Amino acid sequence: MAEFSDAIALLKADHREVEDLFEKFERAGSGAKQAIAEKICNALKIHARIEEEIFYPAFRGKIEDDTLDEAYVEHDGAKVLINDIMAGNADDDFYDAKVTVLSEDIKHHVHEEEMPSEGMFAQCRETDVDLVALRDAMLARKAELQAQADAGGLPPAQLAVVSL
After folding, report:
1. What pLDDT, in 10s, does the model give residues 1-58?
2. Cβ distance 114 to 106 under 8 Å?
3. Residue from 30, 43, 100, 108 nearest 73 by CA
């Protein structure tokens, strides 16, 4: 479990993994795009779940509420696209555009979390929350969700705060 020094290092590693997958999608031929998009969507579903179930609640009341509230709303916006991408296929109209917009949304979200000094992660580092214990809980949950994805798939992403 010490592969990541703490919860923030784990989340940043997830961010780099998804950025790499988005780059692969951009370079891929049409035959490979759907498989890469599905990897992106599953990685994002797992990442969002561990943030929403474990990471964000640990910091409620300890960092700016607006920061957390915006993160939940940004997640829900991404989930709408994730579910649409997962329900479609690479031959669909707007498929590539949906993945591109998802990539742009995720880049914005990652920037807000990782921004030096005022970003979410910087705020979290200033609290008394045990980031190593949080990492361990998040790794355990991530392993459960990855096993579920590998065994037949995750259900559609559930919106947390946005009503459709």
Report:
1. 458 999 999 999 999 999 999 999 999 988 899 999 999 999 999 999 999 999 999 9
2. no
3. 108
Give the ranges where 51-64 is alpha helix by DSSP (H): 56-59
Q: Give the separation between CA 75 and CA 81, rounded to whole angstroms.
A: 10
Distances (CA, A) of 74 to 70, 90, 101, 139: 6, 24, 13, 23
Chain segment 104-122, per-residue pLDDT in tens: 999 999 999 999 988 999 9
Residue where the block lists tokens 């929350």: 129
CB within 8 A of 69, min separation 6: which ones?
161
* 159 phi, psi to nearest 5 deg: -70, 140
Rounded Cα gap, residues 12 and 23, in angstroms: 17
CA distance 85 to 98: 7
Q: Which of 59, 41, 61 is nearest to 49 (CA)?
A: 41
Distance, in Å, from the CA atom of 93 to the CA atom of 43, rounded to the nearest integer, reads 23
Residue 60 backbone dihedrals phi, psi, to 5 degrees? -60, 130
